[in-house]
Specification:
Elements lengths: L19 E2 L2 H9 L17 E4 L5 H10 L6 H12 L7 E4 L4 H15 L2
Parallel strand pairs: 1-2
Antiparallel strand pairs: 2-3
Amino acid sequence: QYTDIVPYDSKPIVGATAYKHKAGTHLAAILRNPAAYEPIEPKVVGNRRRMVFGELAGKNGAAYLMSLLGLDQNDEHAKRVAAGLKNLRMGDLLEIPLDDRLEKKIINDTQVKIKTGK
């Protein structure tokens, strides 16, 4: 901000992807203890945590996604959502900044499809 130099996305701590979490076990660890992978809170460096839900997300990641969206997160629903996420291709992954509302509607619509089968 002070130098007008934009860091590369992949730079540790300050890069745009520094707080992006995708893999199932990695995501599970972040949910239990963010300090395990984030020695500095994202807000301190003007960044924010992003969760990417896709082929590597397991049941715990799916349950977390559902809880973020205010959805019923029982084991059976979480397994179904995780199975659906595993079918996503690289360009279709759901990357959710924790304050984004558009993805909430998309996932909510998906949850309705899971419950009703339509």
